[in-house]
Amino acid sequence: MKEKLFRLLDKLKKTPKKLLLTYIVVYFLWGLGMNYFGTEMEIARFTYWWQIITCYILYMVPISILLKEYTFFEQYAYGLVAMGILEFLGYWLQTSYAYPNNILDSIFNPQNFSLGMALFFALYFPAGNWLVKKIHSLVFNKNK
Fold first, then answer.
1. Residue pair 114/88 in contact by the 8 Å Cβ criterion
2. Is 24 part of a structural domain of the chain?
3. Domain total for the chain?
4. Which of 50, 67, 123, 128 has the most CB atoms less than 10 A away?
């Protein structure tokens, strides 16, 4: 178990700096956009703006990097576990706020809100890895 953890940490350390920077920029902008959208549509929002950094950069970026070599469905499945934990803790600790009677509540009912959010945000891992790969390739591999 300890060896596996060290291998995962080693994989994160060996991530090229330009690739890591691409992940950070993409996920930060994505987090800003989604928090803005969730607030404007009165669906859900972070309680504090800096949670974009903790959730999107410090939590989701490392998970994305660790999952990037897996298939779409494997990334989604592992991402679902990761996002399920994040969603559960966010609403339990009240660091995330779900607007009462939001559009998702009216479609799926309030009891399914967190599950729906986890199912949706688990797509971030395969979609994010695809997007980062495309952007990184366009920006840093122009001569190749």
1. yes
2. yes
3. 1
4. 128
- DSSP reduced 3-state for 46: strand
56 is a domain residue: yes
Classify residue 27: in a domain, yes or no: yes
Per-residue CA distances from 138 to 17, 114, 130 (Å): 16, 35, 12
Which residues in the chain belong to E strands, given as ranges? 44-46, 96-98
Distance CA 96, CA 73 (A): 27
Q: Do the domain assignments include residue 7? A: no
Q: What is the pTM of this model?
A: 0.89
CA distance linking residue 69 with residue 96, whole number of Å: 30
Residue 123: CB partners within 8 Å, gap ≥ 6?
Answer: 76, 79
Helix axes 124-140, 72-92, angle to 10 degrees: 110
Does residue 43 surpass a pLDDT of 70? yes
Q: What is the pLDDT of residues 78-118, one digit of tens each?
A: 999 999 999 999 999 999 999 999 999 888 888 889 899 99
Domain around 100: 16-136
